[in-house]
Design a protein that fits this description.
This protein is of the alpha+beta class and 163 residues long. Helices cover 16% and strands 22% of the residues.
């Protein structure tokens, strides 16, 4: 066993220090979406091979191509303006009656305005001392150290009801 360790370490010295370049496919679907992959392109996409080179650690790769005296100037083309499409919007389940700023300000002031969710109230005040249910209404009762109590009433959707 003592001979195996020096042999293992000596074989590690002969391993290459950097990985060779990889061939990457550049896939264009015609609608302007470009994907880079090593697995190949999907049917109907145009493709070209890209040479991906990872420089060894400690080297300073040049990111600019070498200047050529007889190369024509690059033409700039502008893509047509496209309409901005919002894919998703945060929905709190209470009709988004409170903005993020209003919600944050209420939580800092330990207030529960109408439109705040049960989750927000529990995050702000903790688990209630008592939970009362009546029809579709839920009421959280909190007691402080002096014996005073305060309550927060929620509607059937779990949103704080207004007074």
């Amino acid at each position: 066993m003592p001979l195996a360790r020096p042999l293992l370490f000596s074989t590690l010295l002969f391993l290459p220090f950097h990985s060779p370049a990889t061939i990457v496919h550049r896939c264009d679907d015609g609608a302007g979406s470009i994907t880079f992959t090593t697995l190949g392109c999907q049917p109907g996409q145009t493709w070209s091979l890209q040479d991906a080179f990872n420089a060894p650690p400690g080297t300073q790769p040049s990111f600019l191509p070498p200047a050529e005296a007889n190369r024509p100037p690059l033409e700039t083309t502008h893509a047509p303006a496209r309409e901005l499409v919002v894919v998703g919007q945060h929905e709190d389940g209470c009709g988004n009656r409170l903005s993020a700023e209003q919600r944050r300000k209420a939580m800092l002031n330990l207030q529960a305005p109408a439109g705040m969710t049960q989750r927000d109230v529990e995050s702000m005040l903790g688990k209630p001392d008592k939970i009362a249910r009546k029809n579709a209404e839920v009421r959280y009762v909190y007691k402080d150290r002096k014996g005073n109590s305060s309550q927060v009433t929620f509607d059937e959707n779990g949103c704080v009801k207004g007074k």
